[in-house]
Structures are given as C-alpha cells and as structure tokens.
## 1
Amino acid sequence: MASRKTFNLVLPILLMNCFVQLGQCGRPHNAEEREDLVTATCKHTLHFQVCISSLRSVPGSSKTSDLKVLAEIALNLTTTYAADTLSYVYQLQSSSASNGSNNNYVSRCLSDCVEEYSEAIENLHHSKHALANGDCDRVDTLVSAAMSDAETCEDGFKDMQSEDSEYSNSPLTERNRYFSQLCSNALAISKLLV
Ligand SMILES: *[C@@H]1O[C@H](CO)[C@@H](O)[C@H](O)[C@H]1NC(C)=O
Ligand SMILES: *[C@@H]1O[C@H](CO)[C@@H](O)[C@H](O)[C@H]1NC(C)=O
C-alpha cells in the first residue's frame, strides 16, 4: 500500500519535471546559459553545494558570463563571511565578559580569533586587488593564508581542550569550517582563470 501511494505521488512529479526541463531546453534564454556558468564553475570546487548556494545568493552571479566576475563574487562572499564571523567573536567576548566568566583560556582563544580573522579580512581585501591585477599566484597565496588563519583560530580551542576539560568545545567550529570551504572554493575558482 505504502509503495503504491508513493508511486502515485512520485509519477506526477517526475512528469512535471520532464515538462519543466523540456520547456527550459526549448527556450534559448541567456539567463539559463549564465546559470550554467555557476554550475559549471562550481563543479571544479571541492564544496559544490556551498559553492552553488553561496554564489546564487548574489544576484550578479547569474547575470555574468565572465569567470573573473564570479571569482570576485566568491572573494566578496568570503570577505563578508569573515567580517560577520569577526563580529560574532566580539559578541562571544562581550557575553562571556558580562556573564562574569573569567575563563582565561576561552578569552585568550577568542582574542586570538579576533586577531586571526582581522588578518584574514586584510588578506582577502588584498586578494581582490591581486585578482583585479590578474595576479592569480598572489590570490592563491593570500586566500590560502586567510584559510590557515581560520585553522589557527580553531586549533586554539583544541589546544585548550587538553588544558581545561570544562570548556572543551570551540564555539566557532561551524563557522571556521564554512569559512574554510568558502576559501577553498574561491581558490578553485580563481585557479580556473590561470
Ligand atoms: C565586490 O565587493 C565590492 C566592495 O563591496 C563591490 O564594490 C563590488 O561590486 C563587488 N563585486 C561584485 C562582482 O559583486
Ligand atoms: C552568557 O549567558 C547567556 C544567558 O544566560 C547565555 O545564553 C550565553 O551562552 C552565555 N555566554 C557564554 C559565553 O557563556
């Protein structure tokens, strides 16, 4: 019974998809070719879904047919995320201060992360100039540096883990990971320009 029910639901959806896809193939719309550039480009990255969803969040990405513009958008997204993470770290600092928590390890780690992310933002700003000048090697160096800045931030908490089991988890693991993925994708996209 259950499987027939599923089948009854699935078949119309499949048919609908076919028509939608046929409709798309029939229309020689530029917007779709341009959308393909995002997909085609993201296929060269290690984190495809992150690539697709981040690039698609910027309206300009579907309007361009220029890979260099996509690379710039990727760097912009990465920079914005770094800045956003930096202000999140400031929030963590002030909430742990107002909670009267005087855990030295945590506050030292958070201060380190402020430094690391400030440096990452600077590196990423420079990388945009390098991209504009067509210096892809320098883009590579700077974005790799930004990526390792986030790793250093995360590693601080890992080192703390062995010293103080009470504060064993980094509050920044998810953000550090996502930031690294954005960096990795931006690197892969700018390498396509070489
Ligand atoms: C990247 O960000 C800069 C500064 O915010 C902006 O001027 C530029 O238009 C952005 N580039 C793209 C391709 O969106
Ligand atoms: C500070 O306290 C608030 C509310 O009690 C809590 O949500 C927050 O996670 C605490 N911050 C830290 C860093 O412990």
## 2
Amino acid sequence: MLISKPPDIPPSEITDEAVYNGRRRFLAAASAATAGLFLNRVSAADLPPDLPGLPPARPSPFSTHERKTPYRDITNYNNFYEFATDKYSPATLAASLTTRPWTVTVDGAVRRPGTYGIEELIRMNPLEDRIYRHRCVEGWSMVIPWVGFPLNRLIRQVEPTGNARFVKFVTLYDPREMPGQRSDILHWPYVEGLRIDEAMHPLTILAVGLYGRVLPNQDGAPVRLVVPWKYGFKSIKSIVRISFVEKQPLTTWVRAVPSEYGFYSNVNPRDDHTLWSQARERRIGDFFKRPTLLFNGYGEQVAQMYRGMDLDKYF
Ligand SMILES: Nc1nc2c(c(=O)[nH]1)N[C@H]1C(S)=C(S)[C@@H](COP(=O)(O)O)O[C@H]1N2
Ligand SMILES: [Mo]
C-alpha cells in the first residue's frame, strides 16, 4: 500500500516483492536440490507449527481447489501496518500482541447489541474450512485455507434494524501493543466497512484460524474479516468492534488516499485509477504472472449485488 502518489512512489513495495520472490525461489531451489523434492511439494516447513488447534471445521463448498500457498509464505509476507510497513517484520513484531482474552463488541443499529469473548464466538459458530483466493491491490495473490464462519451468522444473532445499511469494522487501538500506531502513517484505529448485503453474503467470513490452527498474530489474530472478491485491504485484522450504521463509513485507506482506494474495492482487472495496473497478478510462489479475474473469480456468486452500478465510478 502506498500513502503518496508519484513522484515519490518509490516502488519499494514492488522491489520488496521482487526481492522476496527471488529469495523464495532461491530457497526453494536450494532445498529441492538437497532434499530431492519437487518445488511444489509440501514440506514440513510449509505446515503450521504447534499453535493451539481449533474445534473441527467442516469443508466448505465455496473453497477453491487451487494449490494452497505454503503456511510459511502466508505467515511471513503480511501487510499489517499496526506493526510495520514492510511485509517481513509483522511475523516477528506481532508475536507480542495479546490475543487472549479478547472481546468483540457488536453495536449500533441492532436490537441485541453485545460483547462477545473470542472463545464464545468460536463456540457459538460452527467452523468451516474456507480455501479462498486472496488478492492484494499491490499485485500479489495467495490461496489461503482459512478457518472461520459466515459473518451473517453473527449478524442474525444481533438482529439489525432497518437503519443498518452498512457495517463498520474497527481494529484494536493500543499503541503499546501495536508499535506502528505510534506513528501517524495511517489514521488509527484501522477502519473498514461493507454494505449490509455484502456483509450478509455467504462468502463473507470472520476468520479465526489458518491451516486448521488458531490465526497467527501477523494474519490478524484472534479474529479478522475475509471478503475474497475484494482487494486484501478490505479484510481487516484483529477486530474489536463491529457497528451497524446508516451511513457509509469512512474507511482507513479511502481516508488516506481517496483517489486510489475506493469503498467498494472489488477486484477488477480493468481498474485504471490505481497506481498499479490490476490486469495481472503474481501468485506467491509462481514465476509467471497470471491474469486477474473480475471479482477475483467470485463473480458468479457476487456480481448480482452490483447490477446496475457503474463499477468505474464505485471503485
Ligand atoms: N488492521 C489491519 N488490517 C489489515 C491490514 C492492516 O495493515 N491493518 N492490511 C490489509 C492488507 S493491505 C492486506 S493485503 C491483508 C493482508 O492479510 P494477510 O497478511 O493475512 O495476508 O490484510 C488487510 N487487513
Ligand atoms: Mo493489500
């Protein structure tokens, strides 16, 4: 993510990515050479370490069957500005975040507002394995096996009123725990939002795990949003508040750079307002880029929500 527009776009992110991919390929080649493995085979280091498990999750028909991105990539290449603006240090810096106990407050235009402990949220909602494509606006993508539950389950429990047109999500604000919040690189706390029908959509989940284990901190522990047809920045991490509101919330990246980031931010290969062309993407671990798909390939499920809307205007 970039805060400023040209001319000071130092493509540091892009360079980062190139360096990262180069390093990764080198490591993969080296380990394949020594162990005689095929590049794409899952090795022990690709699987989660001994984090606490979660209740059993059932597979979801919404999962993609594409090859999953290895665990070590999903957990070592993160955007989490509360910890750092580079993608490598959240893996270590986020380790100290206290994620238990943790509560999520649900309030606003609902009949049954409440505050839920994280364990309670997990207990109340049957978990599912959801293997989703994840597309960052910076041009990289992954395939991530989340564990979570549909957000619409929680929404039904709190009974939104007719005034609930949008849902606003807020990340923890605690500069002692989140060192990035001591700088004003973004306006804190991180805020995201969805239209109520997007929030109710069966593809929209709250994720509490990854690869069958609890979420590592750098991926948004203990609970984060996942909206697979939108750019990654919509999928807000480490949520403490979910509010039902009448007006479209002012979200963090729209507030920072309104010309670049829109409220909707549906993945769209034709996007031309962004700094980067969105036409293609690099799947982490792949050498060649691949074409980006409208709605990140989830158009069949979500396109009807945007019928009649000018997607260039509402980007
Ligand atoms: N609170 C918070 N949520 C966030 C971010 C962030 O910096 N802070 N980064 C976003 C961006 S740009 C992306 S691409 C995804 C990255 O999720 P991942 O690290 O689990 O892949 O998280 C999103 N959610
Ligand atoms: Mo992103």
